[in-house]
Design a protein that fits this description.
heterodimer; A: two-stranded antiparallel sheet; B: mainly alpha; 7 helices; about 0% strand
């Protein structure tokens, strides 16, 4: 597929996502923050449903060798990086999606957060240029490397290759765990009564 | 039009996005935002610095600025879709943070998000809508990090709210 076609598909996808997120007021930050601080789960339930659909869809297609899964080494940098990101998104009141969506609604705070996200990325690019860590894609080996704090690479594809069990089986197991969490939330809401219990 | 008058149930919205994300996964790759934002950072830096940006190894070895990088257009599309939704539903208006504490939290929060994305090589979108559904080990590592971070951020947020 040509790069222009890829960019066009990405733009159409993004436009639909922006519209749906704007109309639904979904926020990934709220999905985590509200569940922790206020014990409300409007966004958390939506996140879980999306993850269930995606898990079954992705692993189903991976089982038959289709799709484009992400391939790169992972390690301690994912835990540290997303810890910083999680702290930052709660402080900023928006994640990567809601900064764009709120910016589109005229929220200057979101535009400001976006600007400083770019500045943070640029600052880290300077730090990386001294440390050369985490490893650049060209330096990734796919193997465990304790000195580089890297665990290598593993996903549904490698699970299927190593065990001979179709990836969809592991996908269904994960979807089952997500469904269990979703049902626990619904049960809790029913116990609390009110509007929350009436929503899906 | 009813769609622009009522708030859409987020479960329906995210369900629809998930189905579209599966198609995107089949065509180019799963939904992600951090990569596109990094490329935009590189392109903006290139505007100011010119070819001097290539003296910074990161922009040579990890993200070589390229305006044809498809992930950039997901973010631009989200902005466009949100503008359309906000204007059509008469919800577009300029809003500014009022208190100094809000400006400080947004500034620090934005910086932490940018640093975090680049340190992890992933953002929240690729964590929840890409890596974890692909059963990628990185997804589980990222989820543990983001939950711990959101909890820590909530403690700070609560303290600021309580004044």
């Amino acid at each position: 597929m040509s790069p222009v076609a890829q960019c066009l598909i990405a733009f159409v996808f993004g436009s639909v996502v922006g519209l749906l997120v704007q109309r639904s007021r979904f926020c990934n930050t709220a999905a985590l923050r509200d569940a922790m601080l206020f014990k409300t789960f409007r966004n958390t339930k939506a996140l879980l449903v999306a993850m269930m659909i995606l898990t079954i869809g992705f692993t189903g297609f991976i089982s038959v060798g289709a799709g484009n899964p992400m391939r790169f080494d992972v390690g301690i940098n994912q835990v540290l990086g997303l810890f910083l990101f999680g702290t930052g998104m709660v402080l900023a009141g928006a994640c990567t999606v809601s900064t764009w969506v709120k910016a589109g609604e005229g929220n200057f705070g979101a535009i400001w957060a976006l600007l400083f996200t770019f500045i943070g990325m640029f600052l880290f690019s300077l730090v990386w240029s001294f440390l050369y860590w985490p490893p650049a894609p060209s330096a990734m080996t796919g193997e465990l490397s304790l000195e580089r704090l890297q665990l290598g690479f593993a996903n549904a594809e490698t699970l299927q290759d190593k065990t001979g069990i179709p990836a969809i089986i592991f996908g269904l197991l994960q979807a089952g765990v997500l469904l269990f969490i979703y049902q626990r939330i619904r049960k809790r809401e029913r116990g609390q009564g009110g509007d929350a219990a009436a929503s899906p | 039009m009813e769609f622009f008058r009522k708030t859409l149930d987020p479960v329906i919205a995210l369900g629809a996005i998930a189905v579209l994300d599966i198609f995107l996964f089949l065509i180019v790759g799963a939904w992600t935002v951090g990569g596109g934002e990094t490329m935009m950072t590189g392109l903006i830096a290139q505007l100011f610095m010119g070819d001097a940006i290539y003296r910074i190894p990161f922009w040579q070895e990890v993200f070589k600025p390229d305006a044809g990088y498809w992930k950039i257009y997901i973010s631009l599309g989200m902005l466009f879709g949100a503008v359309v939704g906000a204007v059509a539903s008469k919800e577009f208006f300029w809003r500014f943070p009022r208190r100094i504490s809000e400006w400080v939290m947004i500034t620090v929060g934005g910086l932490l998000m940018g640093i975090g994305i680049r340190l992890a090589f992933v953002c929240n979108v690729s964590t929840f809508f890409g890596l974890t559904p692909e059963l990628n080990l990185g997804g589980y590592l990222s989820i543990s990090g983001i939950i711990a971070g959101a909890w820590f951020g909530s403690l700070i947020y609560k303290r600021v709210l309580e004044g």
